[in-house]
Design brief:
CATH architecture: 3-Layer(aba) Sandwich
Shape: globular
Helix content: 40-55%
CATH topology: Rossmann fold
Largest sheet: 7 strands, parallel
Low-confidence stretches: none
CATH class: Alpha Beta
Structural class: alpha/beta
Number of domains: 1
Mean pLDDT: 93
Strand content: 15-25%
CATH superfamily: NAD(P)-binding Rossmann-like Domain
Order of helices and strands: EHEEHEHHEHEEHEEHEEHHH
């Protein structure tokens, strides 16, 4: 079976490719390299440097005839989405639509969309369930909701089977943005990390668990929306303390007020994914952080 992966040279994409290759899938990797790095993509995958909004995408579908699509490519910065909402919309909405239309035209068996916990905004109750109210606080979150709606409609109108996976805060080796990567980057330069007030919470899920979830959704006969998370709420202060412990570094963080677009508390129930997809996370935050720091130490002074 052949799987086409968009955003393949990115943080999650590179781990996804390895997961697929480890399970003997043939992989077609797409990335425009605006943020991704080609050296992350295994040489055992067929790589195309292409933008997901391009008409060149049709040639790839026609030539490669993929059985499945895992759509990870996205503009993923909340801050950038607020500064450049049109670019955010082009990547996350028009890009998704472009991949969807060719997936449908070339008879893809199943389409997996990477979505985000950001769609819920500041939830009224925790843990968040798949049917909780959507309340986006950023154009990024709004673009993800729009992408989800296109996926739903393609399944309803054309029968293109799909799973929408709403990820909580993904972390792992090779990550270059996000709170954990930012803390490690500043610590490695003996700079004080900025953690805002530190009381805000996140649900951290390890990237290898996320890659496994995508593959599980791919082979499952089930469709619909599933939350991929650890199901555990941790404060940023806790994360900072753990990183300080594992790196043996004592640096006082800089505390600032939360930005209006920043979610105060977040934890996603993964009960539905556990029950229906038979997926569950295997890495704790502590186990994942140890791997991240070990990997980071190989390329940075820590």
């Amino acid at each position: 079976m052949k799987v086409l992966v968009t955003g393949a040279a990115g943080f999650i994409g590179s781990h996804m490719i390895q997961e697929l290759l480890d399970h003997q899938y043939s992989v077609v990797a797409l990335d425009n390299l605006s943020n991704g790095k080609k050296n992350r993509v295994s040489q055992d995958a067929t790589f195309y440097e292409v933008d997901i909004t391009s008409e060149e995408i049709e040639y790839i579908f026609q030539h490669e005839q993929p059985d499945f699509v895992i759509h990870l490519a996205a503009q993923s910065s909340v801050l950038k989405s607020m500064e450049k909402p049109i670019e955010d919309c082009q990547a996350n909405v028009l890009g998704t639509l472009n991949i969807l239309r060719f997936s449908n035209k070339y008879n893809v068996k199943k389409f997996i969309l990477a979505s985000s916990a950001a769609v819920y905004g500041n939830p009224a109750s925790l843990p968040v369930k798949e049917n909780s109210k959507l309340a986006p606080l950023s154009f990024y979150a709004l673009s993800k909701i729009s992408a989800e709606n296109y996926v739903h409609l393609y399944e309803k109108m054309f029968g293109l089977q799909s799973c929408i996976l709403r990820f909580s805060n993904v972390f792992g080796p090779n990550q270059e943005s996000g709170v954990i990567a930012n803390i490690l980057s500043r610590i490695s330069k003996s700079e004080a990390p900025i953690i805002n007030n530190g009381s805000q919470t996140r649900d951290f899920v390890y990237v290898k668990d996320v890659a496994a979830a995508c593959l599980t959704a791919l082979v499952s006969h089930e469709t619909g929306i599933f939350q991929i998370s650890s199901g555990t709420e941790r404060t940023i202060n806790e994360v900072f303390s753990l990183i300080s412990h594992f790196t043996n570094m004592e640096i006082e963080p800089l505390l600032k007020e939360l930005d209006a677009a920043e979610i105060k508390r977040s934890v996603l129930s993964n009960e539905k994914a556990r029950k229906i997809l038979q997926w569950e996370p295997h890495y704790s935050l502590e186990e994942g952080l140890e791997e991240v720091i070990q990997s980071y130490s190989k390329v940075k002074h820590l």
